[in-house]
Amino acid sequence: MYRITRELHFCYGHRLLDYDGKCSHLHGHNGVVVLTLEAPSLDALGMVADFQVLRSSLGQWLDETLDHRMILRQDDPAAPGLLALGEPLRLVPFNPTAENLARFVFDRARELGLPVCEVRFVETPTCWATFAP
Predict the structure, then answer these.
(1) What domains, with CATH codes, occur in the chain?
(2) With contact defined as beta carbons under 8 Å apart, do 36 and 57 qualify?
(3) CA pair distance 105, 43, nearest whole angstrom
(4) Pairing, β 2-14 against β 27-39
(5) What is the Cα–Cα distance from 25 to 14, expressed in whole angstroms?
(6) Which of 85, 93, 90, 102 is nearest to 36 (CA)?
(7) How much is the pTM?
(8) For the chain, which residues score pLDDT lower than 70?
(9) What's the pLDDT score for residue 112?
């Protein structure tokens, strides 16, 4: 089995509802998605996938969907006020934990047809979550 990995960097904010701790407040991160793809064989060019295609497909989606956005659960009471101010939000049906965001990115990579086998969502240099089915 062949595997390749690409890191994609972006900035985002979030908070966790129903959580008793610092992450219950609006705050931001310099996030990293570590995308791993696998294939049993290589294509005619000798690749699992072109690294540039990963950047132009999933990377573009990250830039348009999560980068420099506040990621909030759709029922977050801060959302209406932030929307009224014109702040860029991404509302999601789950608490925006690293674990849930890893799954969110994994599912999008699959929708894009990428042979993804694992997504690591790095929230800080010392904290990350991984999703692999």
Answers:
(1) 2-131 (3.30.479.10)
(2) no
(3) 24
(4) antiparallel
(5) 8
(6) 102
(7) 0.95
(8) none
(9) 96
